[in-house]
Design brief:
The chain has 16 helices and 16 strands. The chain has 384 residues and is α/β, with parallel strands linked by helices. The protein folds into 2 domains: 267 residues, Alpha-Beta Barrel (TIM Barrel); 89 residues, no CATH class. The strands form 4 sheets. The chain has an 8-stranded parallel beta sheet. A 3-stranded antiparallel beta sheet has the order 1-2-3. α10 links the parallel β13 and β14.
């Protein structure tokens, strides 16, 4: 039912296919994030038209509303949201641990307060497996703890707990039509990452995720962590880098052997008026676009670029029109999925190194200090 095929390797970059009950995932691949069983402002037909192969939904949020039991009664996530392609759920661990002051942690699990109404809930490995199996995605994640990547002592303790929970998740997971992935943690510390990879490999998961990155470390630290983590993972299983979605980070991670990704970034920045192009991000609210009759990206085939001008899109964003959010999201999702097709094509002909160099030379990368400041603002906004 689940089968991984490695077709070609170009350096460490891998061209592969992961077969699931709802179809194959051609990798490297990017999964748009549909937190509440919906990619914000998009419909399933938009995802099909953009070429999506995989969509991620969030266990924590769906557990709180509408509830996993309701989703199960409606036939599972695929039928509930009328999307027939492969789906993935995370365990909800990252969201729970980001609540900080609203949760209490022990070896058995984590007790937390809902960000919606303050009600008290409990996640254990067994409970999370019950929820994810009820939701019914093709790929599910074990419950893990996601500590700050630079704190050595915290990572040591969290890794012990993550491994304990991985064993318990593996023991109770029973859906044969669902692949359960282990999650490698350990911050930026090589010995911890290698230990985690070795421990989880012994549990023989059908795939492995790399968690705990893009949450406070520099890009250089992230890339160095991937340099020693990817080779430690089984070569005959898919490798998933969780929550990483800037184009430059994806290119660098593919270069180091990662197979697929998810991130809210393309859809979130689209709602803020920032659209992705081969030259970097374009802020559609800027005055320079007021009378610009060109599309956002000349060679993009998405509905937005084939129909509307930069001038019109700027008008929609400035006027606060809901359609701006949808049109921007259509473009950004299409951009990311088109980028992955180009990556796969480059690996297929043995030219990924050249593609990487050309892409990174052209794409303007957002300043790291700005990125960290924005992350701090988002974290502060989540606090009660």
């Amino acid at each position: 039912m689940f089968r991984f095929e490695l077709h070609k390797q170009d350096g460490l970059a891998r061209l592969s296919t992961f077969h699931t009950p709802h179809g194959p995932i051609e990798m490297p691949a990017f999964a748009p994030v549909g937190t509440l069983a919906n990619v914000k402002t998009l419909e399933p037909r938009d995802l099909y038209e953009a070429g999506a192969q995989l969509v991620l939904a969030n266990t924590y949020h769906l557990y709180l509303r509408p509830g996993h039991e309701l989703v199960a009664r409606r036939g599972g996530l695929h039928k509930f949201m009328a999307y027939d392609g492969p789906m993935l759920t995370d365990s909800g661990g990252f969201q729970v641990f980001s609540l900080a002051q609203q949760r209490r942690l022990d070896d058995d699990g984590v007790t937390f307060r809902s960000h919606i109404d303050g009600s008290v809930h409990r996640f254990t490995p067994e409970r999370v497996m019950e929820i994810e199996q009820a939701l019914g995605p093709d790929i599910a994640m074990v419950l893990d703890e996601c500590p700050p990547p630079l704190d050595r002592s915290y990572n040591e303790e969290a890794l012990r707990r993550t491994h304990l929970w991985a064993e318990r998740c593996r023991a109770v997971h029973s859906r044969e039509d669902q692949a359960l992935f282990g999650i490698v943690q350990g911050g930026i510390f090589e010995d911890l990452r290698l230990y985690s990879a070795a421990f989880l490999t012994q549990l023989n998961f059908p795939g492995y995720a790399i968690g705990g990155l893009a949450v406070g470390e520099t890009k250089e630290q992230m890339y160095a962590t991937l340099d020693f983590t990817c080779p430690a993972l089984p070569s005959d299983r898919p490798r998933y880098l969780m929550g990483v979605g800037t184009p430059e980070d994806i290119i660098e991670a593919v270069f180091r052997g990662v197979d697929f990704f998810d991130c809210v970034l393309p859809t979130r920045i689209a709602r803020n008026g920032q659209l992705l192009t081969p030259d970097g991000r374009m802020n559609m609210r800027n005055a320079q676009f007021a009378e610009d009759e060109r599309p956002v990206q000349e060679d993009c085939r998405c509905y937005t670029c084939s129909t509307f001008t930069r001038s019109y899109l700027r008008h929609l964003y400035k006027a606060g029109e809901i359609s701006a959010l949808r049109l921007g999201t259509i473009h950004n999702v299409t951009f990311m999925l088109s980028l992955m097709r180009e990556v796969r094509a480059a690996i297929a002909v043995g030219r990924f190194e050249q593609f990487r160099s050309t892409f990174l030379a052209r794409f303007r990368i957002t300043d790291q200090a700005t990125r960290h400041a924005q992350r701090e603002l988002r974290a502060a906004a989540r606090k009660p």
